[in-house]
Write a structure and sequence with these properties.
By secondary structure, the protein is α+β, with helices and mostly antiparallel strands. It contains 5 helices and 5 strands. Strand 4, helix 2 and strand 5 form a beta-alpha-beta unit. The mean pLDDT is 80.
Length: 169
């Protein structure tokens, strides 16, 4: 039996959900993002809570929109990428190197997990801005496209607030 959204009746949260390893196995989603050094989101994605962070990096980098610069052609990739220990894999380092993206990825077992670093806090701040949107705190939408749309709206609001703050200062 299927409900009005065309999904099996027993399925509660919809696609792109998975058992959250930190929340007693409840179904949940994870938001992946790439932001610039000011904290503005450039690329967004969602996945199941049980998907590893390293699997979400390539689609996010590929999904970055062209960035207009004052001189020259539009940039289609970042010049440098900072990431935490969840992305410390040789295949990701090779992939970034092949695309011409310099990377600064924390090493497992070498760098302390107590320090976030001077660049990584920008991403943590942007994630906290997204978490400030109550609609994203808990996923109510069954369709993944709808949840991704709300994440996009929240990112647009973050950009709008940053623009208004810059204009009034």
């Amino acid at each position: 039996m299927r409900d009005r959204l065309g999904q099996p009746a027993r399925r509660k949260r919809g696609p792109l959900t998975g058992p959250n390893p930190t929340d007693r196995g409840k179904l949940g989603s994870k938001i992946h993002l790439i932001c610039d050094r000011n904290g503005l989101p450039l690329s967004l994605g969602i996945s199941g809570a049980n998907m590893h962070d390293s699997q979400g990096l390539e689609p996010l980098v590929r999904g970055m929109p062209p960035i207009r610069s004052r001189r020259g052609p539009r940039r289609r990739r970042p010049a440098k990428l900072h990431a935490d220990k969840g992305y410390d894999y040789d295949h990701l380092r090779r992939w970034l190197h092949q695309r011409g993206i310099r990377h600064r990825i924390a090493r497992k077992g070498i760098e302390s997990s107590q320090r976030l670093g001077r660049h990584r806090w920008v991403v943590e701040r942007t994630v906290s801005w997204l978490a400030g949107c109550r609609r994203l705190h808990r996923r109510y939408e069954r369709k993944a496209e709808h949840f991704l749309a709300f994440v996009g709206i929240a990112a647009t609001l973050i950009g709008y607030r940053r623009l208004i703050t810059a204009l009034t200062a």
